[in-house]
Amino acid sequence: xxxxxxxxxxxxxxxxxxxxxxxxxxxxxxxxxxxxxxxxxxxxxxxxxxxxxxxxxxxxxxxxxxxxxxxxxxxxxxxxxxxxxxxxxxxxxxxxxxxxxxxxxxxxxxxxxxxxxxxxxxxxxxxxxxxxxxxxxxxxxxxxxxxxxxxxxxxxxxxxxxxxxxxxxxxxxxxxxxxxxxxxxxxxxxxxxxxxxxxxxxxxxxxxxxxxxxxxxxxxxxxxxxxx
Length: 228
Fold this sequence. Notes:
Strand content: 15-25%
CATH architecture of the largest domain: Ribbon
CATH class of the largest domain: Mainly Beta
CATH topology of the largest domain: Umud Fragment, subunit A
């Protein structure tokens, strides 16, 4: 009875792990490639407490003329190194097809020192954030993690196939002469469910190589230089 409970628990955990890995590769790796949303990792503390560093943020495109005060948008700053930031719009200085906005990090004491004119037809607006989840995605996208997953998946598949080929088959058990015949006992399944482990590793491997840093993090529309 105890072994059966342990086996069922392991199978359930394996199923959850596999489902989570598939969900991760679909939502983080494949979904952003269709343009309906994108994901990024917050690297600084300027948007604390709602979006601390390491948060995974999900963004959707909105028409630039619908950007309003209070929206949190991601854009490339028009000064210095033109880095990408995610800050809150605190003032729409000028509206229209190419609005001019002033932004500020929630944790900063003062607004940003520049004005930014949004160009193109859309801006990326933050919809929600998952604290600390970005660290896991960033770890999967490191070169070492990518090499490990690319090597681990075929290795685990090979081991599973070899086990299935060479594992001894259980012979049906015979019943004692005086007892009623009993059906043969099915061999116990692996505790974690080997195919679910393979599925999870395959999904994580795909996630590591599908969406490398910078592909979805870079805005598709730039900003004009700082306005006088």
